[in-house]
Amino acid sequence: MKSLILTLLTATCLAAPSPPAQSPLQPATITIDLATRYQEIDGFGFSSAFQRSADIRGKKGLSPENTTRVIEYLFSNTDGAGLSILRNGIGSSQNTTKDFMNSIAPTSPGSPDAPLNYTWDHIDTEQVWLSQQALSHGVRTIYADAWSAPAYMKTNNNDSNGGMLCGVTGTDCPTGDWRQSYANYLVQYLRFYQQEGINLTHVGFLNEPDLIVYYASMVSSGTQAADVLPILRSTLDAAGFSHVEIACCEATGWQEQGDMLTEIQLAGAEDTMGVVASHGYSSQPKLPLPTTKKVWQTEWADLDGTWTTHWDVLGKAGEGLVWANHIQNAIRLSNCSAFIYWQGAENTTGNSALISFAPGDEVHVSKRLWAMGQFSRFVKPGSVRVEAEVSLPLLHSTAYEMVEGGVALVVINNGHVDYETEISVRGGKGGAGMMTPWVTNNDFNATAQEGVQVSEGGSWRVTIPARSMVTYVM
Ligand SMILES: *[C@@H]1O[C@H](CO)[C@@H](O)[C@H](O)[C@H]1NC(C)=O
Ligand SMILES: *[C@@H]1O[C@H](CO)[C@@H](O)[C@H](O)[C@H]1NC(C)=O
Ligand SMILES: *[C@@H]1O[C@H](CO)[C@@H](O)[C@H](O)[C@H]1NC(C)=O
Ligand SMILES: *[C@@H]1O[C@H](CO)[C@@H](O)[C@H](O)[C@H]1NC(C)=O
Ligand SMILES: *[C@@H]1O[C@H](CO)[C@@H](O)[C@H](O)[C@H]1NC(C)=O
Ligand SMILES: *[C@@H]1O[C@H](CO)[C@@H](O)[C@H](O)[C@H]1NC(C)=O
Ligand SMILES: *[C@@H]1O[C@H](CO)[C@@H](O)[C@H](O)[C@H]1NC(C)=O
Ligand SMILES: *[C@@H]1O[C@H](CO)[C@@H](O)[C@H](O)[C@H]1NC(C)=O
């Protein structure tokens, strides 16, 4: 209590023009209610598309020692963020120049009815290797997403620059309807991975279909996606991949994905989707999408700022605390079951990745990685979100019944003072025990603090530090 009052006084003297939001004599409360259950969590992850897997493996000069370090930071549950989802890119390019992802059928077979001319290099721009690294660290969810169909299947005969898949509503290609051929192509990609001992769990056939860009891209409306979804679903089922879920449609933002979803629902194709997938760029996840399907935030990053390892210094878009709140909001407000950052690690001077290895043979870890880790280390796939009622809105909170048993509470104190807080669990078996707080802030990276005693009734009292993220694990 003494230290709390000191903190409050210091903060008040230094900056705060208004009094603290709460009297220090009245602790805030967080009540976890195990009986009020929300979405199941599938996990937290990153992508390594566009040859970043090759870069992690040392293509541009990263040493083997630092390749290992990067892998551990991403996947290790003790030395890293313990990430549990990998998002690969299914290639559409004719070659691997620049950062292109090569296609498994780069040349046209002449017509949509002819069998595709497959070629498999066992590398897939090192995504096979990265998938194996992920598997060996316990990752079980590997999602492969195509940015585009190969050029010869599209209206613009180019895998870049937008264009549509021949055969969907509004297209009339001289070569015919390539929808079934594209579905066969995606299934063959799953087979190649299976041959490498890698079972992909999710597949997607679009990426940012509301955006035309100079790299691999393919335009689609929701209606057009609905023209493909049932074909892909039945092709997967017929090929023995009925357990593989389709994720769709990776629109640039929540609003855009919401519009696509409405069109898919109107076309009666929603049930073919396993996951409604959206990015966070053009509009952020702050509302639930109207669906009973699982919802994933599958790609987002700060693409504008210069590289930062700050947690909370200038309040810039790449800082860790900002991302802690993005993840918490996606889960709490948008019912997300997964949160996937853009790149895991790359040679960059921006914030597009969680880890940077520019310049030279160096590894820099952002606080964004530890914000992900505050969830991912504890909230493993299969965990279920439960109610966390908070008396003080500054303490953004979510709670989980962990898949291996026990409860995890993730709290972000967005306030500028420490708050004494009484935390209790309702609906549990009860019983005293120890609870460990893990903290990320300007001083710590998902670091365990001294254990706290939980009372017989299942409650404990803590001081939640200002501008910090704490995961309480019981
Ligand atoms: C990062 O990129 C720069 C510039 O292309 C290059 O000089 C450097 O060797 C690269 N470092 C790594 C580790 O890839
Ligand atoms: C590589 O593939 C792209 C299209 O995927 C093509 O535009 C380019 O000409 C190819 N480059 C080489 C060197 O083959
Ligand atoms: C099949 O692809 C290979 C290269 O991947 C090429 O050499 C061959 O000519 C192609 N066959 C047909 C029938 O297009
Ligand atoms: C992949 O799936 C197949 C078929 O369901 C199964 O037999 C195999 O054991 C799985 N392999 C791995 C590495 O999980
Ligand atoms: C495909 O689009 C890319 C990117 O705009 C362009 O550089 C390339 O020349 C195009 N290829 C063809 C065959 O039109
Ligand atoms: C949240 O998502 C789950 C599926 O993960 C679904 O059953 C539930 O209806 C969704 N709730 C809301 C409010 O959207
Ligand atoms: C690896 O990265 C670290 C941290 O940036 C750096 O100090 C070291 O020189 C790099 N190379 C090796 C071989 O450890
Ligand atoms: C952990 O956090 C401290 C303080 O913020 C920082 O100096 C250190 O480099 C971080 N370590 C890693 C591996 O990110």
UniProtKB/TrEMBL annotation:
GO terms for cellular component: membrane. It holds the Pfam family Glyco_hydro_59. One of its GO terms (molecular function) is glucosylceramidase activity. Residues 68-346 form the Glycosyl hydrolase family 59 catalytic domain. InterPro entries: GH, GH30_C, GH59_cat, Glyco_hydro_30, Glyco_hydro_b. It comes from the Eukaryota. Residues 1-15 form the signal peptide. This is Uncharacterized protein. Keywords: Hydrolase, Signal. GO terms for biological process: glucosylceramide catabolic process. Belongs to the glycosyl hydrolase 30 family. Gene3D superfamilies: Glycosidases, Golgi alpha-mannosidase II. Residues 382-472 form the Glycosyl hydrolase family 30 beta sandwich domain. Coiled coil: none annotated.
